[in-house]
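Why run this: before we spend reagent on co-expression, it is cheaper to look at a predicted model of the complex and decide which construct boundaries make sense. The entries below are exactly what would go into the expression plan.
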Amino acid sequence: MESKQLTPSQAAGRRKWVVALTAVKCLIESATKLIFAYFTGSAGLLADAIHSMTDVAGSLVVWVGIRVSNNKYRRFTYGFYKIENLLAMTIGVAILYAAYELALGFVHSKSVMPTNVTTSIMALLLLIAVNFLWGRFEVKTGQLINSPGIEASGKHTFTDLYSSIAVLVGLVGAEFGVNLDKWASLFVAVILIKVGYVIIWDNLKVLLDISLEDEMLREYTAVIQKIPGVVSVKSIRGRNSGSYRLINVEININTFDLASAEEIASNIEKAVKQYDNSIDTVFVHYTKELPSVLKVFIPTELNGDVISEHFGKAQFMTTLTYDKQSMRFYDVKTELNPFMKTEKGRGKQMVEHIKKNSVDSVCTKENLQEKGPGLMLYHHGIDTRITELTSVSELLQDYVGNSRAIFAERGN
Ligand SMILES: [Zn+2]
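The model came back. Tokens follow.
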């Protein structure tokens, strides 16, 4: 995270401006190169001009992507983002075609020795300097507003320097009577083939709904697992759409309460989006599940051997730690119920005691479903169960199997 934070709307505004200015810069650049290509007859300059034109088209596609994502078109469900990928594919094909034409010109040795090159050399030097500074500005802005797209665009501007430098070498060669220019045009053609191939492949992956890389999903999982209330991440899937990512995550949470479940879900969405700002939507599905090792509370009688018929009126309170996997239990503690004699609100006091002791699951013979203490337990997100058995040791042979969660249907 940067120390200089911008608000999301400031960042979005800056992103738009950088994209628009980049498009304008590429437009001026390609026009300049075209004019000089015409006056010098340089095949290399012509090739570089074509390259710059494809960059203009590329900026326009990014622009369309930003417009689509920020306005009412969002209503057209998420498939609409793919227009950006479709446009990008067309550009990829156009780039490959341009490369093919350039290579053909090279093979047929159509290129002539450039003339009147001195001014073109000056102009190209100026363009190279501008692009160097612009590329640096884009990378820095991309990092500041946390936009991988802008950062990538900056790196692209840097790689474009290579083709311009090759063309410059060609022109300097011409100044000394050596025809390096046609080799420069071939070099640019090779770069264009690579650029076109990458664009087509990247966008094809999105159009074919190829899911996100496992490494990326593992990173999101790590972020989600740190959110309070999340017990475990059951599954995670993700895919690209346009320049956006959509994530589907299934989690286990430790609460029955709908409001807190919604809060956990929205915290997950916020955290994941903050981690990767190309994520547009996070679909969170949650289910309530007991942790693998849980703290159990049972109201008991007879020194903790028998499950009490009552909740608040029970003589003893038994707490223990239970391992779901091995069905073993330990740390059994039985104590006299201090609230037993209380006239009013003993159930409520018992729930508070349970809450204070971080109990995960409560098991009773009394059905608490429609009762005050039951609703309080539900509200605190504490698993509440009922059993027909009387013996504590029998119940603990298979705690989950020998009891039934009374709020399970309301958990999700
Ligand atoms: Zn380029």
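The pocket of zinc ion is lined by residues 51, 55, 156, 160 (CB under 6 Å). Residues 229 and 253 are 6 Å apart (CA to CA). Bring this page to Monday's planning discussion.
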